[in-house]
Batch of 2 targets.
Target 1
Amino acid sequence: MTPQEGHQRVGENVTKGKPDMHEAIDSPCYSPIEPGRYGDLAKPMEGSNLLNYPSNFDVLLENYINLLGDLSRKIMKGVALALGAPLAAFEGGTAGDAFWVLRLIGYPVSADILQEERTDIGCGAHTDYGFLTLVNQDDDICALEVRNQSGEWIYAKPVPGTFICNIGDMLKVWSNGIYQPTLHRVVNNSPRYRVSVAFFYESNFDAAVEPVEFCREKTGGVAKYEKVVYGEHLVQKVLTNFVM
Ligand SMILES: O=C(O)CCC(=O)C(=O)O
Ligand SMILES: [Fe+2]
């Protein structure tokens, strides 16, 4: 299947040139984009992207997406307060119409993957693209690893009833590096199929994100990162993350 049709088979997602040992239902599950709304910027992602899910799974997903959108907005308000920014810093043109992506990901047991297709990485090391990600992972499998400041990979151990919250690239740029995106990867060495649900909360699709003045002032006065149009960043990442 192509990414537009929504299911990625094991090995189709690629991180830094290497196939990832996971499968996912994902590309269909992001904010719908009306054709023409962002001109050429969003062309590869336009249109209705909903699959025909069995039973009432789409209703369930929609509820989940709404709840996690609300939760993400609350967390972003907390981030604004922590930075000394106005409470509405992430509303309006920045994230008032936040783009979101939901991925339902499955990591098979190694022995179940054809030997000639197998690698040892479920998802290669990367940072997420937007403001933040809320990961809901299986309660009893340690597989998500994050790199700490000493450069060691440590487990982000599942704590039942909680989400892992990753910081994404856009928050790094916006805060001029005060918030750093955490490098993470997934290695499923357990004898069980692992499932995770990742909700990515982003800026507006067409937002031009750059270090804001008061964060620059707190960090030496100079912008450490260039302005990024989120949609361009995403489309470029999506196009390089699939084997076309
Ligand atoms: O499966 C996980 O725990 C994390 C997945 C992930 O990092 C991603 O899809 O960006
Ligand atoms: Fe990630």
Target 2
Amino acid sequence: MFNFVDIGRQILNKMSKIIYTITDEAPALATYSFLPIVEAFTKPAGVEIETRDISLSGRILANFSEFLTDEQKVSDDLAYLGKLAVEPEANIIKLPNISASIPQLVAAIKELQAKGYAVPDYPEEPKTGEETFIKAKYDKIKGSAVNPVLREGNSDRRAPKAVKEYARKHPHSMGAWSADSKSHVSSMTEGDFYGSEKSVVVPKATKYKITFVGADGSTKVLKEGASLQEGETVDSAVMSYSKLNDFYAKEIEDAKAKDVLFSVHLKATMMKVSDPILFGGAVYQYFKEVYDKYATLFDELNINPNNGLGDLEKKIASLPEDQKAAIEADIKAVYEKNPALAMVNSDKGITNLHVPSDVIIDASMPAAIRTSGQMWGPDGKQKDTKFVIPDRCYSGVYQTVIDFCKNNGALDPVTMGSVSNVGLMAQAAEEYGSHDKTFQLAGAGTVQVTDEDGNVLMEQAVEAGDIFRMCQTKDAPVQDWVKLAVNRARATNTPAIFWLDKNRAHDANLIQKVEKYLKDHDTTGLDIQIMSPAEATQYSLERIVKGLDTISVTGNVLRDYNTDLFPILEVGTSAKMLSIVPLMNGGGLFETGAGGSAPKHVQQFVEEGYLRWDSLGEFLALAVSLEHFAQVNNNPKAQVLADTLDEATGKFLENDKSPARKVGQIDNRGSHFYLALYWAQALAAQDKDAELKAIFAPIAEELTAKEAAINEELLGAQGKPQDIGGYYKPEFAKASAAMRPSTTFNSILAKL
Ligand SMILES: NC(=O)C1=CN([C@@H]2O[C@H](COP(=O)(O)OP(=O)(O)OC[C@H]3O[C@@H](n4cnc5c(N)ncnc54)[C@H](OP(=O)(O)O)[C@@H]3O)[C@@H](O)[C@H]2O)C=CC1
Ligand SMILES: O=C(O)CCC(=O)C(=O)O
Ligand SMILES: [Mg+2]
């Protein structure tokens, strides 16, 4: 249990600090190498760097202290940062963390238990009160549990000029598009969230209640006592489970008929309540014969299609050989009958239906669009694909890009313009804040949302199995978002398009607010328009091919989608994005890139000692964080650090020192060395701060002189398996040794 008084005191003590977050997978590995550089370089300027652990394993340990020995207990760093994010002092560098699906959560628990932490198992089917309590705690850790807590501001994501120039000079590969590509997006035509959305703007502050009223007259309160602010927009929508299943069945047949891969694209991590169910529906429909035939057995084994085929495979592994073989033969028969599935790893037989968190729409759709609109089939070959995105709210964006590429060919990174994003995100806005208001209903009836006076705000009819979802969007974030959009349009003299669909109830309410709040600003000479997502996509693409830039001003989901889609097409990866969250209370949250934790990269590092994680996002975030620190604390030395870091990053890009992809070439560690070299050189060359100049001149000299020796040590460490002492909770000494193999470099840093 954390104590708010304590946390308050800690915040006062931490006023002039930069918080660097410890997360998971590839960014966490990179941190073992990069953080010592950051600490060494910032110390002479009086900038204190503090780390806070928000990794999946750290969050599990923090929440289950009662199961741990005193030595094993850790502080609840996420709770601490959540409090800090609403304080003006906040200066947080946030690296990507795992948003865990149940299979990942279970794996992390197993690893911790094996390391001697007596944390409880995840009770998939809780039977006692205690198990229900434990499950509820784990469910808070699961999915996207970190970002919504820290994101107390809206989002400003863009490719800095130097990054765009780098991509123009060193264009990444883009698969060619053919006009007769059979790839397409399939969405439901009715019964989805889009078709059922209702929205109201609350006239005065109130408390709301969500109640299920059964067809038999019974009632069940699903949630109550939660607040709504004056002017808050609330929406409700329903996904029909039976229509979803009919849709999947039809699309499976259609993929077979069209001879394309079947691939489902959802966000089971961020949308942790609804999307695993949507994913499970696809798994069930595809493997229907198997799940139906073995229904009783699977029930006993707690096999749930929502956890993917991987869960089934794991749980049948301990069955008697003949029983297991029979199930496997039935699975094989399904593969033969049904269309080929898009694969996550065709060598290992891992399909897109194995793990709910393997295919995440924001990254998976752009990656396919970059690859000629194709995915990989079971034979390891690329093939045209049916991209199944059940809900219509945002699927039109991808169909528009696909149509555009079919008509115009692949986009060209050398000449294309840019689409940046201003995203409405603060205070758990919209769908991404809906987890605690999303329910799968057990029976038919209606779900009512009422205010504290008993007035019905919204009502939705449901059948058994349907998913009801309610979203909230507070008014202050909307005002801040409009302001940010106008500021970005003004600062860059670029058209800003609000991606809002007047045919959606929620968007229609937002359009009214946007029109109202735009009047609070001087917009003379600015090009600000409102278009539906599909129209806005088309408009932006028509500009992009002419080399023109456009700002996309979007809600929370499109913020997420667009900030992978356009960066991946423009600069090859969203890791190179500048991602700033100006916190509404004056602090700064600096996210590193817009991409995730790249699990594939860890696998490669462990197998062959090569880490291809690109830390450019960390470099960019650190520079803006230092700049913010300099301004808030009136510390000119920190400003010198920020300016010289920017210069170093520019040179780093110019000299092409980003990690490559294969053993024998520069990797993440080598890229950190070059950043340190250029940063030291820039500090030694500047004349704004004589003290820093004097400190860094000998460091720069020594790093320059020993470049060859350091490279030899870094390259020499590649090409062999690495032991980092764990996946979810690596051992510090082992991971640090693996990530810092150059004694020459380490000893120079130690002089600072
Ligand atoms: N802010 C956050 O905390 C975020 C967290 N996540 C979480 O990360 C996990 C993995 O998500 P997933 O959707 O697979 O997305 P990832 O972004 O982790 O991976 C997709 C691909 O993006 C590329 N990539 C991403 N970052 C880098 C980088 N710094 N350097 C080089 N390449 C990079 C790689 O592509 P390629 O192989 O083509 O080079 C990678 O294989 C999930 O748990 C997810 O929830 C996801 C997004 C944001
Ligand atoms: O929080 C998450 O699960 C992912 C966040 C994400 O993809 C993003 O912010 O772009
Ligand atoms: Mg994203």
